[in-house]
Amino acid sequence: MSEVSRAVQEPWPDLATQREGVGLGIWAFLASEVLFFGALLTTYAVYRGFNPAAFRAAASHTEIFYGTINTVLLLTSSVTMTIALRASEARLRATTINALVLTLALGLGFLACKGLEYHDDVVQGLVPGAGFALHDPPTQLFWMLYWIITGIHAIHLSAGILVVAVVVVLFRRDVIPVQDSTMEGVATYWHFVDAVWILLYALIYLVGRA
Amino acid sequence: MTEITLPFAPVEDTGAASYLDAGHTIASWLTTTDHKRIAILYALSITIFFFIGGAAIALVRLELIEPNGWFLTSDAYNRLFTLHGIIMVWFFLVPSIPATMGNFLLPLMIGARDVAFPRLNLLSWYLYVIGAAFTIYVLVAGGVDTGWTFYPPFSTNYSNGYVVAAATGVFVVGFSSIATGVNFIVTTHMLRAPGMTWFRLPLFAWSMYVVSLVMVLATPVLAMSLLLIVAERLFGLPVFDAAHGGDPILFQHIFWFYSHPAVYIMILPAMGVVSEVFACFSRRQVFGYAFMVYALLAIAVIGFMVWGHHMFVAGQSPLANLVFSFLSFIVAVPSAIKVFNWLATMYRGRISFEAPMLYALGFLGLFTIGGLTGLFLASVPIDVATTDSYFVVAHFHTIMVGGSVSAFMAGIHFWWPKVTGRLYSEFWAQFAAITMFLGFNVTFLPQFVMGWEGMPRRYHVYPDVFQVWHVISSGGAAILAVAYTLPLVYLGLSLVRGARAGDNPWHATGLEWQTSSPPPKENFRRVPRVEAGPYRYDAAGRPRPQGTPL
Amino acid sequence: MSERRPSVWELARGPAAVWALLVVLLAVSAGSAYMPLGGINAAVNLAIATVMIGVLAVFLMNLRWASTLVRIVAASGLLWLVFMLGLTFTDYLSRP
Fold first, then answer.
1. What single DSSP character describes residue B389?
2. Chain C contact set for A28 (CB, 8 A)
3. Is residue A210 assigned to a domain?
4. Touching partners of B (3+ C-beta pairs < 8 Å)
5. Residue B420: is it exposed, middle or buried by C-beta count within 10 angstroms (0-12/13-18/19+)?
6. Section B365-385 average pLDDT
7. Which residues contact A102 (CB under 8 A, 6 or more apart)?
8. Alpha-carbon gap, residue B434 to B281, rounded angstroms
9. In terms of residue numbers, what domain contains B54?
10. Residue at B541 is within a domain
11. Which of B151, B119, B460 is nearest to B310 (CA)?
12. Residue B500 dihedral angles phi and psi, to the nearest 5°
């Protein structure tokens, strides 16, 4: 039982309540994240509402190949993360760590793919500003949103990757037991980043394809 | 002071077991996870910024004595009022009551040993400090001149100030708010002592919970609005650029979606404080407790739906103006309910006029005036005439200074004995409270008048006809400066020369008064079991405490 | 404790099924984007995205077993987003 008592932190009375508290805290934080991205979505909605043709024209230049691969990578990472969470609840230490490492790899794969895609976008002149490739001015609005939204998402994913990496190290060195409240928060955050991407995929890659 | 018989014998006060004694090094303070110490770290930080923001406006008010400019260039003038706004809103008012009194008292009031996430609490203070560092950099490097509202295209394309640094500072400090909010929400839901049901919570605890909901939901939108400004200014991305189909009004929508609820972030905690003070110094329970709770919630929720009243002349559609105007009238109703309930609390109470009560009474009158002038502004035709005039400036200062700052002072004085274990000089505190009230009115009543007569805000140079009002207002500001400096002196002196406070010098109800002053590190030597609601005073005005220790 | 610990396959079965569902939905969404449906394209894609997020939230984020409070918190974020979008569009949709 010393493992459990190690896991309980001040001022929580017991591990179960602590887990519940961490879960509630992460969801409260996610509510704020919904509004953070929501402001961007509002911007997108307003600008697309006023410039539907320009958005279709601009979005047809996005790389749906990279986008779709990235979506599959993230969906898979959500599954491996779920396995990690369930393994941690069952106190399967090795499985938890392995599943987390897999999740990490998939996340890094996403970033690598994104990097390649960004390179392609730059080469094709899709950065708003002086050398912008498309003619109609409102197409710059779409691409401005592309860079900002995918950039912010990538930053969130990178933060998640960093946290997962740290947690893997802490679990491997047995600094914290796998069954404490850490996995609760990590998994929920990771799924949120995936959920945001699912929406972004529809808003960025599937527009103007027909 | 008569001895109050409590239902348990307090553990003997050894003086060596308070949270202040748990480590005397600077490191012990900078690495603390004790919510009480973090509250004090915040208190010191926001006090410093209060005086920096105050110094900025002191220079502005001095300059405005002369209608044609005196010792400031117009550019310097713009930078001073901008810095005043940024500092006072984000580095003083928003954190003021929640990060200081909320941090210190919420766990105590609910019978907990700390907040839910003590390390997150410390992180929130460090985020404040990092945001503050950016602001100091802006101050030292030369300032920013966009107004605290950062409107594009001026902020993105034309300003020569340190817009990116200023926006970054505010962005970072916003996450301090969000962290505090998440912490308080989880704390209130999950760490209440046995028997402490939701409707037995003191109204201050409720106000901390409700303000946390607002902080968590509103602040991220501010963060995004500033991020977009930085993206446009730094990377040249056409976010609000009309030449590419962008809309500067969209910035205003996103910015005010946060910034209107922000004013409720600034007033809800104040309402919580004065509820505690009115109950204690009337020796009566708060009238209509349940409606006071519902009113807090209603203000918080409806407050998210009125932001367009800052944009009546910006180019919003008439329909939107109508909708936002209507909702702005509605949001006044719960506030009015609270004012009537505070009055009813005092009715037939045994009222005494210690400093906290004087500040709370000042709050009551000034909040009412400020709120009523808000109704004027909620009316579109009146707003069209008074927008961007001193009428608006006077309105929001009456609420934020006359209201929130008065309540902040009320709370500081009310809980000073609990936090420090010392009693301050009541004479000087009452003197400062009255001086502040008088100084406030001399400063801001002329601003209502000249605003109504057409004096625009943010103007460095103005028509001679307004000079008399400016001079009176600046005189009032000088009085306010004295009133704000006095507490530094007598509160500071109380730390070394003040009489030691007992557990409950005000004979108030509430769990925080059932532990020693200052409290031990773990808050309660024996965690209380709560058996009744708050604010129970018997017919003779004696408190009947909320809990008994387990 | 004499609880039998689940095997990796037992842990992975449910999530793998969810994965298959999500990939199918993804394919349908992407496929439909290439069909010339006019304004319906956006609606279909957003609807499928919403369903996918719902599946993720309920089955992988455990909203299925979460307390009422957590569900309220999750819903609040979305509700506030509706406030922001709704009232902002009150302006934009009624501009002359």
1. B
2. 73
3. no
4. A, C
5. buried
6. 97
7. A77, A80
8. 17
9. 35-523
10. no
11. B151
12. -75, 135
Given pLDDT bands bounded at 50, 70 and 90, which one contains residue A4? low
Query: What is the distance between the alpha carbons of residues A184 and C33, in angstroms, rounded to a whole number?
Result: 36
Cβ–Cβ < 8 Å for B187, B107: yes
Cβ of B149: how many Cβ atoms within 10 Å?
17
* Lowest pLDDT segment from A100-109, B221-230, B263-272, C12-21: C12-21
Number of CB pairs, chain A paired with chain C, less than 8 A apart: 134
Check C77 against B217: CB less than 8 A apart.
Answer: yes
C60 to chain A: closest CA residue:
A82
Domain count, chain B: 1
> Two tokens at B57?
């406006």
Q: Is the pLDDT of residue B84 over 80?
A: yes
CA distance B85 to A82: 46
Q: Tell me the two tokens of residue A84.
A: 């990690």
In this structure, how many other beta carbons lie within 10 angstroms of the beta carbon of residue A161?
A: 21
- What is the least distance, in Å, from the CA of A177 to any CA of chain C? 17
C-alpha of B67 from chain center = 32
Asked whether the predicted pLDDT for residue B16 surpasses 60, the reply is no
How far is it, in rounded angstroms, from Cα B512 to Cα B35? 14
Percent of chain B with pLDDT over 70: 97
How far the first Cα of chain B sits from its last, in Å, is 28
Is residue A9 very low, low, confident or very high in pLDDT (cuts 50, 70, 90)? confident
Predicted confidence band of residue B12 (pLDDT cuts 50, 70, 90): very low
Which CATH number is A169's domain given? 1.20.120.80
Residue that wins the pLDDT comparison between A89 and C23: C23
Using an 8 Å CB-CB cutoff, list chain C residues near B221.
84
pLDDT exceeds 60 at position B480: yes
Nearest residue of chain A to residue B33 (CA atoms): A10
Please tell me what DSSP assigns to residue B403: I
Residue B15 lies in a domain: no
pTM: 0.95
Place of tokens 């109508």: B322
The answer to whether residue B547 sits within a structural domain is no
Domain parsing of chain C, residue ranges: 1-65, 66-96
Contact assignment for B323 to C87 by CB distance below 8 Å: yes
Write down the pLDDT at residue A10.
83
> Given pLDDT bands bounded at 50, 70 and 90, which one contains residue B14?
very low
Q: What is the CATH number of the domain that holds B439?
A: 1.20.210.10
Closest to A135 (Cα-Cα) out of A205, A48, A46, A58: A58
Residue that is written with structure tokens 């230490």 in the block: A93
In a domain, A46, yes or no: yes
Quote the number of domains for chain A: 1
Q: Report the alpha-carbon distance of residue B415 to residue B283 in Å, rounded.
A: 17
Residue B210 host element (H or E): helix B203-235
**Cβ–Cβ gap C94/B217 under 8 Å:** no
Could you read off the pLDDT of A55-67 as tens digits, one per residue? 999 999 999 999 9
Neighbours of B492 (CB within 10 A): 12
pLDDT band per the 50, 70, 90 thresholds, residue B15: very low
Q: Which of A19, A24, A36 to mutate to test the interface with B (most CBs of B within 10 A)?
A: A36
Name residue B18's beta-bridge partners.
B520
Does residue B269 contact residue B210 with C-beta atoms inside 8 Å? no
Using 70 as the pLDDT threshold, list the residues of chain C that sit under it: 1-3
Q: Is the predicted pLDDT of residue B550 greater than 70, yes or no? A: no
In the prediction, which pLDDT does B1 show? Answer: 31
Q: What does the pLDDT average to over A74-85?
A: 96
